[in-house]
Batch of 3 targets.
Target 1
Amino acid sequence: MIYNSINDLVCLSKENKQEIWQIILTCQAQEKLISEKEVFSQMREMYFAMKNADEQYDKTLTSPSRMAGGDGQKMHEYNEAGKNICGDFIGMVMEKAIKMGESNACMKRIVAAPTAGSCGVIPAVYLSYQKCFNIVEDEIVKALLISAGVGAVIAANASIAGAAGGCQAEIGSASAMAAAGLAYLQGAAAEGISNSVALALKSVLGLTCDPVCGLVEVPCIKRNVMGAVNAVTAAQMTMAGIKSAIPADEVIDSMRRIGNDMPVCLKETGEGGLAVTPTAIEYREKLNNIDN
């Protein structure tokens, strides 16, 4: 990888007079030993898969635990009724994030972005942005390349796994990746993209991974909504000229340290946090009875 940090991406963008997505495209082509055109095509296929997963959402499905299913439809109906005070775009982001998370829990095809537990964040932001603002598909693919590059940096310098770094590493990483791409779509230069990463990620530092019954359902699905909306607000602050006091790479380093300091019970083991509440224990007992 020709870049090891967000700052590397910014510097390479300036030195080569290229946009960040072009730097990442070239790097991926070199690593995979394929053409840049093929890399771009592969990323387009990834976006198609996200679209298909969204379009094939089934409101009648529930997960085996019965803890997930149907909420995406409820959000859709609420939005259609014009009651969502967040507006059309944010309302749609919320809806698509839930739908993707529920589809994952119900064993339908999804795209890990960067993980299955955070699969709703990036699709929710990009699918909604394209639909609401009529953006050409190539621009979305470029934004996905930026997301991929940001994710690679986070994975190399911290973690994208809840078991290693808590949910900050999953939802947090996805949120930062989506914020970076959205900032690009709105016209941000390299520094703005970097800033959006910092603003999004530092807002979720310390987020625990405490899945009820050890399943990627509660609170994971609704956290996808939070991560997606957080990405949008980070990009909007960036576009307004608001700058993070702490650079993106230092935020990523902080996420790694926080993850290392986090007790094991709060890192996807189901032994702490929400996972050991009285209601969560009841769910676990019911699930055990189903299995038996």
Note: The mean pLDDT is 97.
Target 2
Amino acid sequence: MFLSAVALLTMVNRSEIYPRLAPARRNDRILIVAPHIDDEAISAGGYAVDAIANGAEVYVVYLTAGDCNRFSARLLHRTLEPTASNYLSVGKTRIAEAKTAMKILGIPPDHFFVLGYPDRGLRAMVDNPEAIVRSRGTRAHEVPYDDALSPGSEYRIENAINDLKQVIELARPTTVIAPVPFDMHTDHAATAEIVDLALDELQWKATRLGYLVHSRRMKPLMNTPTRALLPPTRLKQFSWATYPLSDRVKQIKTDMLMTYKSQRPYVFLLRNAFVRRNELFFVYPSPAQLLLAR
């Protein structure tokens, strides 16, 4: 079941700084964990396109519905002071957009899941494991979406972990792609911890790949699809791997991002920053490597 991360990497020519990640194969099962709806496209949309084309099984799970975006709530409802119901509407809109993006990617409805926990509230859940957290946007204290995996589930970290464990048991992934713990967005960093907890409780062994979305680097104002995506200078010594994207795959990734109309104009900055000639992944050490390092 476990595939060593080292076995997935093949070196490219010497002009490349980082090793290249090999494409997923027919027997691979990929689980992409996204804190918000659109993170799956930003981080690994291209890798997923090729994985599906190669016959691999790809699953996506969204921990939140991204329903605490004030700009989106203002834009969609034409108000400067969005209400709780406005934020709930944003969540429903984003879930509908995710379903469209999954169709573009080629993922069937039983291969993606919305958990619906509080946007911008995952860190509070992790740091206060006994607490029931209230959403800053919708003001809900339980999952408010009928099409979520567990509607009505209280906003407690135990429930989020149990939902994610259920997804892992359904997907049975050989590779898990999730945010890195050093992402500057609190939801992304908290998601990395939630994934660790779920995998540890299940004792599930899989190749771990991480993605970085939020760092100090500026988002480019120009669309630069031929430029390489590289880590920030302060993180360049970390264990990274790149995955090259063809023009066709870049277009599909762009089409996925453009379905997220509720995120305009921010989505154009995301396209400029992350639709590049490659995707970038942090490669976690395998359990065998960790044992050797002790």
Note: The radius of gyration is 18 Å.
Target 3
Amino acid sequence: MLIKVRAAGVNRPDVFQRVGLYPPPPGASKTLGLEVSGEIAAVGTAVSRWKVGDRVAALLGGGGYAEYAIADQGLTLPVPRGLDFLQACSLPEAALTVYANVIEHGMLKRNETFMIHGATSGIGVMAIQMAKAIGARVIATGRGPRKVIQALSLGADIAGRDC
């Protein structure tokens, strides 16, 4: 599907691609930009979940730093109510990474304990919230007292300083 880009995220993989340390996947655009938000401008015949005009955020293999970007419907999320496009473009990388690794592959379940190091990074913040949403107990670490307090404020049950 084709997204009219309204905002694009800038994160570590984008920076690494820029300096040549993180090549795009085979067949992906050489244009930078791994996450975007905007409105769907066109859909293909295989697209069933989305329609033209939907407000979405998407994870891309590249090509997000453009007026339009091509996205896979399986790597696309609705823009949550209350978020603007600038806020929404920061969601796909963290949300889909945590979901795939913690929920799908890691099979984290209700009442299990989950430990997150670097809990106030983008991935860590998302991991705390997703783990709590499914009912897991969260133990978090952070560098220094402010980060420990932040992890607790995000929902961690126990937080302490990294060694």
Note: The chain has a mean pLDDT of 94.
